[in-house]
């Protein structure tokens, strides 16, 4: 079933800067999607449009076939978003307060809060830091708290807007582990991962490439990364493994995209 | 971000002072500040009472595990202001002063003015210490709750009390972030050749703008980001929210209330009567001698 649908959506800033031009696509329930594109291509803008932090200049958005706007509180309750800067989304004074912030806004009974908070902090492995203040946490830990704070609100769609780009490799790994966990969870949350990191694209089943104010590619990441021509026109560097295999193939090695790195190594040694 | 001590930042200990209800602590801060501000008759009496207050404050600081040294260190940048205030008060002429201490090329400096400046400085330091005690033993969320609680009557005149409290709590939350940002920008500008330590005052002011402008820009973009993050989690200004923390007065709160307000009432009484404490003590001892 369609969760989100965009019909002929355009976004123009200051009446002249076209960021998105007449975009239409839809997202099914439970899909895991990544969005890539160069700096300033409008990825964040697209994310904010879907969650209705901003309104489109033209076009309409639908949630489960119902048109919605900024004022539709009931529908917007289904959306969450993790932003790039870990410090700017830590609202509470401590980890538990931060998770509670959203619950307080939703007028959840305070008696039910501790259970929800513990459950979500457990999910992101931050339960031992419950009483910690943000200045004692690493970037990766803060992002995990942000994830917990968002999913505590029973979302049907969660958008990661370059959530790992300010993190070190360890933090990146922590966050992508949580994404893996969310994929496996049984409530089938729809995930949109906006990223510059091609390895993260491999976590998803579908990738949208934003270029020239349009969606220039919409399909499986695997198909995109195997297609050298397309990668060149879209100006994308594929993940390490795909690059390696493509080059080895050209050099005449009998390797395949499905091989593991280890078997590729063995084949080179032969 | 390191975990360096930021002036007045909350310290997560579990002392009695930490446990006292935030609303009471705010009340104590106010009445103690009033007590610090009063004048108690003669210079000597006032100085004695200031001394007692200082001892009281030190005891509270000791209990709440605030280190005096760290405060002194983080007050580094205020020392100049202190010195300035001290000197101004010494040189300020006042007709009532009579006891000359020094004569600097015909300009008289009186003992009274020296004592007076000393007293003003002491008051300032005590008020800072009191504030530090409050902020380092109370979480910013609790503090904003306490403010909101006292401002509750303002709701009658449609003042947006809860929004105001949210603003306060966000400001308190952002102070350490902005301090960090300042050091970062300062280092960045220094590495480009900006010089913040030498040069005359005008030059320094100009170099200082090279910190202020980027700082303002980053603060604006931070606030926009925060607004998005809050909106996405369902925050709507002035809308009713529930509260995760439940605040209740405890027995310890009652005792602390009796103790602090008792002390303050006594001090207020002294201030009202304007005793000369030395004379009172002298009379008292002589009465005892007479009785003997
Ligand atoms: N509030 C605004 N007013 C005017 N222009 C804006 C505004 N927000 C974004 N833009 C412009 O819209 C374009 C798209 O911005 P957006 O942040 O969506 O890009 P992005 O793909 O997320 O880039 P990045 O990879 O750097 O995050 C940029 O050119 C930006 O300058
Ligand atoms: Mg962006």
Describe the protein's architecture and organization:
The complex is a heterodimer of chains A (270) and B (292). In chain A, 37% of the residues lie in helices and 24% in strands. Chain A is α/β, with parallel strands linked by helices and 270 residues long. A 6-stranded mixed sheet of chain A has the order 6-7-8-3-9-10, sandwiched between helices. In chain A, strands 2-1-4-5 form a 4-stranded antiparallel sheet, covered by helices on one side. The model of chain A has no long low-confidence stretch (mean pLDDT 92). Chain B has 11 helices and 2 strands; from the N terminus they run αααααββαααααα. In chain B, helix 2 packs antiparallel against helix 6, helix 2 packs across helix 7 and helix 2 runs parallel beside helix 10. The N terminus of chain B is likely disordered. Chains A and B meet through strand 6, helix 3 and helix 5 of A and helix 8 and helix 9 of B. The structure holds adenosine-5'-triphosphate and magnesium ion. The site of adenosine-5'-triphosphate (ATP) has 13 residues of chain A, from strand 2 and helix 1.
């Amino acid at each position: 079933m369609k969760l989100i649908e965009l019909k002929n959506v355009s976004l123009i800033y200051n009446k002249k800067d076209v960021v998105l031009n007449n975009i239409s696509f839809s997202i099914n329930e439970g899909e895991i999607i990544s969005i890539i594109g160069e700096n300033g291509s409008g990825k964040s803008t697209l994310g904010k449009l879907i969650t209705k932090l901003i309104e489109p200049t033209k076009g309409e958005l639908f949630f489960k076939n119902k048109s919605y706007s900024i004022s539709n509180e009931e529908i917007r309750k289904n959306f969450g978003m993790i932003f790039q800067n870990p410090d700017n989304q830590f609202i509470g004074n401590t980890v538990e307060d931060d998770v509670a912030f959203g619950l307080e806004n939703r007028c959840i009974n305070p008696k039910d809060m501790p259970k929800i908070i513990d459950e979500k902090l457990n999910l992101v492995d931050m339960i031992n830091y419950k009483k910690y203040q943000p200045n004692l946490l690493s970037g990766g830990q803060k992002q995990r708290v942000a994830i917990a704070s968002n999913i505590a609100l029973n979302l049907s769609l969660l958008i990661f807007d370059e959530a790992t780009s300010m993190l070190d490799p360890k933090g990146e790994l922590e966050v992508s582990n949580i994404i893996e966990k969310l994929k496996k969870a049984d409530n089938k949350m729809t995930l949109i991962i906006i990223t510059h990191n091609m390895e993260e694209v491999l976590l998803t089943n579908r990738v949208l490439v934003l270029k020239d104010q349009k969606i220039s590619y919409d399909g499986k990441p695997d198909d995109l990364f195997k297609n050298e021509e397309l990668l060149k026109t879209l100006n994308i560097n594929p993940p390490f493994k795909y690059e390696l295999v493509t080059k080895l193939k050209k050099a005449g090695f009998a390797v395949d995209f499905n091989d593991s790195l280890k078997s590729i190594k063995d084949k080179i040694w032969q | 971000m390191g975990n360096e001590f930021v002036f007045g930042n909350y310290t997560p200990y579990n002392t009695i002072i930490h446990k006292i209800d935030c609303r009471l602590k705010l009340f104590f801060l106010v009445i103690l500040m009033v007590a610090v501000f009063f004048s108690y008759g003669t210079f000597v009496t006032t100085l004695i009472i200031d001394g007692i207050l200082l001892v009281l404050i030190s005891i509270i600081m000791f209990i709440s595990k605030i280190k005096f040294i760290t405060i002194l260190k983080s007050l580094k940048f205020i020392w100049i202001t202190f010195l300035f205030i001290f000197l101004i008060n010494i040189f300020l002429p006042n007709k009532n002063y009579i006891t000359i201490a020094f004569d600097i090329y015909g300009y008289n400096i009186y003992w009274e003015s020296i004592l007076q400046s000393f007293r003003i400085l002491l008051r300032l330091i005590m008020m800072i210490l009191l504030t530090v005690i409050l902020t380092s033993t109370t979480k910013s969320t609790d503090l904003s709750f306490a403010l909101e609680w006292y401002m509750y009557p303002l709701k009658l005149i449609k003042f947006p009390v809860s929004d105001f409290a949210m603003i306060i709590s966000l400001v308190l939350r952002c102070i350490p972030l902005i301090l960090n940002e300042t050091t970062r920008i300062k280092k960045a500008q220094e590495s480009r050749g900006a010089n913040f330590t030498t040069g005359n005052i005008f030059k320094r002011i100009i170099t200082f703008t090279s910190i202020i402008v980027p700082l303002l820009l980053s603060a604006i973009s931070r606030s926009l980001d925060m607004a998005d993050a809050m909106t996405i989690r369902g925050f709507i200004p002035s809308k009713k929210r529930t509260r995760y923390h439940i605040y209740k007065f405890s027995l310890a709160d009652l005792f602390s209330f009796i103790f602090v307000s008792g002390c303050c009432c006594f001090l207020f009484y002294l201030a009202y009567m304007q005793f000369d404490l030395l004379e009172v003590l002298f009379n008292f001892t002589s009465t005892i001698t007479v009785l003997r």
